[in-house]
Amino acid sequence: MHIQLKEIHKFYGPVHANQGINLTVDSGTIHGILGENGAGKSTLMKILSGYIQKSGGEILLDGRPVEFRNPAMASRMGIGMLYQDPLDFPPLTVLENFMLGQVHGTRLSARDWANKLKELAEHFDFHLDPEAPLAALTVGERQQLELLRLLSLGARLLILDEPTTGISPVQKEVLFQALRKLAREGRTVLMVSHKIEDVEALCNRVTILRQGRVTGEMEAPFDPETILAHMFGTPPSPPPKCAKEAGDQVLAFREVSAEGGRAGLNECTVSFQRGQVVGLAGLEGSGQGVFLRLAAGLQKPLTGTVLLDGQDMRGADHHEFKRRGVTFLPTARLEEGLIPGLSITEHFALAACRQTFLVPWLDALKVARTRVEHFKIRGTPETSVEGLSGGNQQRLLLSLIPPSPKVLLLEQPTRGLDVESAHWMWQHLLNLCDQGTTILFSPAELDEILMVADRVLVFFNGRIVLDVTAEEADPDRIGSAIAGRVSDE
Questions:
Q1: Where would I find the ABC transporter domain in this sequence (predicted)?
Q2: Spatial separation of the C-alpha atoms in residues 416 and 324, rounded to whole Å
Q3: Which residues pair with 218 in a beta bridge?
Q4: All domains of the chain, ordered by start, with CATH?
């Protein structure tokens, strides 16, 4: 499918998200769309997929002008979009999610659909159990399922919005192999990203957006410095590490075991000091997610004790942990972190509410205006959270962090952020560290741990198999521990 976008404009009230964008994508190619957060990438792709309507311009598919009033119209024309946040139903099974939206759903039996799913999955070397509950799948597996569903609906153009965010390196390579196979088979792939290394590894051509405009186009092989200049002007530099020495013990686990994820957590004993920045590494489901939820009071241990400032927290719920200074930011922004349908101001109103019937609207509006400006959120206090790009949703989550948390627990803190935004965000977080906040974070990329952490824990099969300082954090040693190979050095 050959795509042309001509002079595409999109207004959200006074915000001009797309400003006369022109884009041409050839059939059978993988085309990258790069740009910083809020550059207009997701907006442009949502227009092409029928999710939102353009304010002006023209869309041509194989030379024919088309108008999409909704995603169903785009789907009938062979366009499928894999959104940054999965549009699926966790209470249903893998097979039931695969069958959603199928035109011939009532004509085929469940066995027929299971066979179709199996055939497609085997073609791309995906391993999905049709009877498994969707909630048991990793982010990468949910992404694989949605990709197969779109293909079963007849997608000839696949749009992927930040597809490598939140998935493991192994899952990323499986995805890339599948996308290369799709291109060889004649399908067209549009990949929205802010990760230059992903575009280098996969794309034939790239278009770069900045502040709603096209600032550059180039063919592979790509020059990273040129791309950065088109994205940001001046390439950003990483933040300095926290220089504050660790203080008294603030959080400790004593022989803690718990269920959850693929491996749970097994007899974990570890402690953390005031002002530390600790990176939690490991393959998805190795125990770090369960660990963070135990530390936040969102999950209770089967055995063992969690101590906060030396106090046994057995029986305490998440609200008690929050009251004692523990803040948790989840990776699932629209499922756990933010509330779809509410505005930015309403989120600050909720954050300010105590046990009272009075809602502090004026205070919330004042805080919203200040935080929108300080955190450079591209929206207004009245903007609903689903109207923000993924990166700006992440900025909003970060802006909701209390001024001086005692312990800050972060799942993929830079999810969806471009490199400049990620560095800016870490500068903000490391300022909290200088004030005594203890930060524990579990990113998708090992490079992020090596950039900011002063201590690294590696999880494997529900256990901490390596605990080293930043000086001892050799990438090869950490990589071996992540794979379950730990030396005694």
A1: 3-236, 246-486
A2: 30
A3: 206
A4: 3-232 (3.40.50.300), 249-482 (3.40.50.300)
Contact predicate 203/191, CB 8 Å:
yes
The set of long-range contacts for 169-173, using a CB threshold of 8 Å and a minimum separation of 24, is: 170/283, 171/138, 171/140, 171/141, 171/143, 171/144, 171/284, 172/140, 172/198
DSSP H helices, 233-336, are 288-295, 318-323
Structure tokens at 460: 């494997």
pLDDT of 53-90, one tens digit each? 999 999 999 999 999 989 999 999 999 999 877 778 88
Q: Which helix (DSSP H) or strand (DSSP E) does residue 71 occupy?
A: helix 71-76
| Tokens encoding 141 | 């597996």
Whole-number percent of the chain with pLDDT over 70? 94
Contact criterion met (CB below 8 Å) for 33 and 85 = no
Give the CA distances from residue 434 to residues 124, 307, 357, in Å, rounded to whole numbers and listed in that order: 47, 23, 37
Beta bridge pairs of residue 265: 258
Closest C-alpha among 361, 408, 399 to residue 377: 399
Helices (H), 85-235: 94-99, 110-123, 139-152, 169-184, 196-202, 224-232
Instruction: Tell me what the mean pLDDT of segment 10-38 comes to.
Output: 88
Peptide bond into 360 cis (omega under 30): no
Tell me if residue 98 falls in helix, strand or coil. Answer: helix
The rounded distance, in Å, linking the Cα atoms of 371 and 349 is 13
Beta carbons within 10 angstroms of residue 462's beta carbon: 25
Whole-angstrom distance, CA of residue 260 vs CA of residue 299: 9
Whole-model pTM: value is 0.64
Write out the two tokens for 79. Answer: 């366009």
Helix (H, G, I), strand (E, B) or coil at 184: helix
